[in-house]
Amino acid sequence: MIPKPVLIIAGVVAVLVALVVIAVVWQFIGLWFQALLSKAKVGIADLIGMKFRKVDARVIVLSRIRAVRAGIPVSTAQLEEHYLAGGRVTNVVSALISARKARIELDWDTACAIDLAGRDIFDAVNTSVNPKVIDCPSRESHKNTIDAVAKDGIQLKARARVTVRTNLARLVGGATEETVIARVGEGIVSSIGSAETHKKVLENPDNISKTVMARGLDAGTAFEILSIDIADVDVGDNIGAKLQADQAEADTKRFQAEAEQRRAMAMAQEQEYKAEVQKNRALVVMAEAEVPKAMADAFRNGNMGIMDYYRMKNIVADTDMRSSIAKPGGERRPQA
């Protein structure tokens, strides 16, 4: 026979265990009953397991109820798996419901992949149903217009509005809005640049839209371009004239530099010539200094006499006289 104290202790332990179980289960009774009434049954054991796995049971249960009521076959395990992967379960379920109502093909795995890739799947589905308009250039850009120059040199400032729709099949791995804006801007610049005159662009701005649309700019992006509308085109500066003026100024400076270079070379050459003259004069002086020495040697060696010296002096004096007469203003002897 079991002693009475042991029975009392066992009874107390059983009561405590029962109270703990009731307390734990009571936390999930409301969610379990709500799921049961919504025909989206979730087991008590699953709810308790979520508690230990650090999963928000309320988010999982409410998301399953919404999915089941909308006719989307998704299990509790799938919802919990996406939650543990860091996904936004509520957002994915909302996107699936919107896609089903709009008759857009979107399965659970694709929606989870898009959500885990960091894209807003709910916004993407809404954009598929209700296309949105993208400003080109964007409002966050430091430039308010797309500037391009026609062949006649006139600058045009354009603004465009691009209507796009999300392509869910290319949302994972597809380029974002920035790529679409960049491609549209490039197309507008190319279209204006190929125009013969700016007047043709102003007369038919829709030609820009047609040209840009024909290039298939949405290839490889997560969007499908529905239309490109030129919102405004303004005339800017005469870039051609400015470029010509700048070129003329640059040519003037270049020619001035070349002329200055030639002048410097001429001055340097002149100085070289002057130095050469001074050098030659020094050589003449040196040669003249050798003449007396040669005459002395001639007297000493008997190769030259006094009469020879006098005749030479007379010739020199006669030469000096003729030179002085030949100079302007020099005196001349009267002819007989």
Strand content: 5-15%
| Broad structural category | alpha+beta
Rounded to the nearest angstrom, the distance between the terminal CA atoms is 188 Å
Question: Low-confidence parts lasting 5 or more residues at pLDDT below 50?
Answer: 332-336
List the secondary-structure elements in sequence, H or E: HHHHHHHEEEHHHEHH
Summarize the main sheet: 4 strands, antiparallel
Rg, alpha carbons: 52 Å
Put simply, the count of helices is 12
Strand elements, count? 4
Helix content: 55-70%
Mean pLDDT: 82
Structure explained in plain terms:
The protein is an alpha+beta fold and 336 residues long. Among the domains are: 4-129, no CATH class; 137-242, Tetrahydropterin Synthase, Chain A. It has helices at 4-37, 44-52, 57-69, 76-84, 89-101, 108-116, 121-129, 177-193, 198-203, 206-213, 239-301, 306-326; strands at 132-136, 146-149, 154-166, 223-238. Strands 1, 2, 3 and 4 form a four-stranded antiparallel β-sheet that branches. Strand 2 (146-149) and strand 3 form a beta hairpin. It starts with a helix and ends in a 10-residue tail after the last helix. The model is unreliable at 332-336 (pLDDT under 50).
